[in-house]
Structure formats: C-alpha cells, structure tokens
Write a structure and sequence with these properties.
Blueprint lengths: L1 H12 L2 H8 L28 E5 L3 E4 L13 E2 L2 E2 L7 E9 L8 E5 L9 E10 L12 E6 L17 E2 L11 E8 L6 E6 L14 E12 L20 E5 L4 E11 L1 E5 L5 E5 L3 E8 L6 E9 L2 E9 L2
Antiparallel strand pairs: 1-6, 2-5, 3-4, 5-12, 6-11, 7-10, 7-12, 8-9, 8-11, 13-14, 14-17, 15-16, 15-18, 18-19
Length: about 325
C-alpha cells in the first residue's frame, strides 16, 4: 500500500516531463564498454566488453587496463592513435571503409535491454573519432546505427543494406574531438538488437583523401524514448562555426578556451596516461583560461564540456 501511495503522489505533484523522464532509460547495455570480462590482449576481442559481440568481421576493444601489458590496445594511447575515452576508460574500434578492397565493413552488436515498442519514437546518440595512425585515418561518411530482430556474428554477418536507422550524412574527419552522431525514428518492428558501423556500400559512401582504411573509435551509445537521455545534436560540431569551441596554449603555458555564444560548464585536464590532473567546474560564458605553468613538459588532453557538446584537444607543453 505504501508503494502505491508514493507512486500516486509522484504523479500528482511532479510535472509530466519529470515523471516521463524518470521512467525512461538507456536501452543499450554497457553503452560505454566499461564492464569487461578481461583486459584485451589481442585485436578482435570485442567480446570482452560484456554484452557486445561481432556482427561482421572483427571489431576491436580498447581499455586503459591494457596500458601496461598490451599498450597497442590501451586508452588513451593504442596502435590506432591517441584518444581519451568519451566516457570512462574504454571504447571500441571498427573499420567503416577500405580504399582498395570492396565493401570491407566491421559491425559491433548487442542485445537491447528490452525490445523496442512498435510505433514509439526513439532517440539515438553515439560518438565517434577518426583514428590517428597513417593508413587508418581515411575520413568517410555513413557511420551509423541499425536495429534488427535477429542477432548476427562474424560467421553469419549482418548484410550491407544501404540503409540505417541513424547515420552521418557528412564525412567525419575529426581525429581530436569526439563527433556526435544522433537522430530519432519511429520503430516499425519490435527490434531486439542494435548494431553499429557503416551499412552502406562503397558506391553510397563518401570519402576524402582516402588511403587504405577508414577506422573509427566508438563510445557512449544511447537509445531512449526520452531526448533528455539521448540528446539529438542536429549538426556535426566540426562543421558548425556558430558553436565552435577553440582551445589553444599560449606562450605562458596557459590554456585559452573560447566559445561562440556558449556556456563553458567545466574543464578536465588529463596527462598522457589518461589520469585527471586538473578540473575546473566554475561555469563561465564564452571564455576561460587555465594555467599549466606548474606542470612538466609533455602531452596533455583538455576536455571542455559546454552544454550538449564535448570538445577534446591535445595540448603539448614544451617549456
């Protein structure tokens, strides 16, 4: 009886949006790949991220727990470049295009926490970053999310269908920042599985200055009935000057952060090992300055959170 009374009071005293938001959830289990059954020792070990498996060929798993014994699979430094996780200490990587071999695609897949409801609108957001390493840094378009009523595997791979429920029309070339890919759709079936990758063939995929592989890191995947859980970002940050966030180091070893018409909510500074060494959560409008005068030479990562955006910049302190 007490439970019934509490639920009734919540419905009567809380605004509708608060009640509906409380009932919503991210339907993607282990969305940032943090929960793992072991540290990666070899490429292709996506299955170590609990719940996730290969739906086509062999996606890779990266985790900071591998930094010492298997640095090629570490975070933030690994064989494909240097990138901090968008969230936590892990992410995955997959091939979305190959310049000389036709229709090479890798897909990662997972079973949702519950099937989608037919006729319900769902919001999807995830983040990608292009690899740094020469030969794997070919920018391409069409990386996206597709839902299915059945699972797939590397031996029974998901097909290339020239369709996806949410995908990037633009070429994503940013190797420093995490680029959001987001959208929404009304479910036309009780989909139980999600997969991520490029579901378009070579004829329908755009590239730029492409040599060899298009390899993307992927992190922080969200599917929800509530856009507050999975905010739909209508444009890719690197091509949106009105929301640009600029980060640079001046001659006094001060990080200067400027934005256009945007609040800087907080800043995190990481060392090359991915450890947080400095935070600043004093919100300001448009401009902020952070000193690194007392820190040694080396590579640092600056994360700037401003409203629904995250900008990441590598900073090199030389003196």
């Amino acid at each position: 009886m007490k439970n019934i009374i509490l639920i009734t009071l919540l419905s009567l005293t809380s605004p509708f949006w608060m009640v509906s938001h409380a009932l919503a959830q991210n339907l993607v289990p282990n969305p940032s790949f943090e929960i793992h059954s072991g540290c990666p020792q070899f490429y292709t070990q996506l299955y170590l991220a609990v719940g996730w498996t290969s739906y086509r060929i062999t996606p890779d798993y990266f985790n900071a727990c591998a930094n010492i014994q298997n640095p090629n699979l570490g975070v933030p430094v690994n064989a494909f470049g240097h990138q901090n996780a968008f969230d936590g200490n892990a992410y995955i990587g997959l091939i979305c295009y190959h310049s000389t071999v036709v229709n090479v695609r890798e897909y990662a897949g997972v079973q949702l926490l519950q099937p989608l409801n037919t006729g319900q609108r769902y919001f999807i957001t995830f983040y990608v970053s292009l690899a740094d390493t020469l030969g794997f840094n070919c920018p391409s378009s069409k990386v996206g999310v597709k839902f299915s009523t059945q699972p797939f595997s590397d031996t029974i791979p998901a097909p290339i269908t020239n369709s996806a429920h949410v995908f990037s029309q633009s070429i994503i070339s940013d190797r420093t920042n995490w680029t959001p890919v987001s959208g929404s759709f009304v479910a036309d079936s009780a989909y139980q599985y999600l997969m991520i990758g490029n579901f378009f063939d070579d004829m329908h995929t755009d590239t730029a200055n492409c040599f060899w592989y298009s390899y993307y890191y992927v992190d922080n995947i969200c599917v929800s009935t509530d856009s507050l859980d999975c905010p739909v970002i209508t444009s890719i940050q690197e091509h949106n000057p009105s929301n640009l966030c600029e980060i640079f180091l001046n001659s006094q070893n001060e990080i200067n952060i400027t934005t256009a018409n945007n609040f800087i909510q907080y800043v995190e500074i990481y060392n090359a090992m991915g450890q947080i060494i400095l935070t600043d959560n004093n919100a300001v409008f448009e401009n902020k300055k952070i000193s690194l005068k007392n820190y040694s030479k080396g590579v640092y990562i600056c994360k700037v959170y401003s409203q629904n955006k995250l900008t990441v910049k590598k900073i090199i302190v030389n003196n």
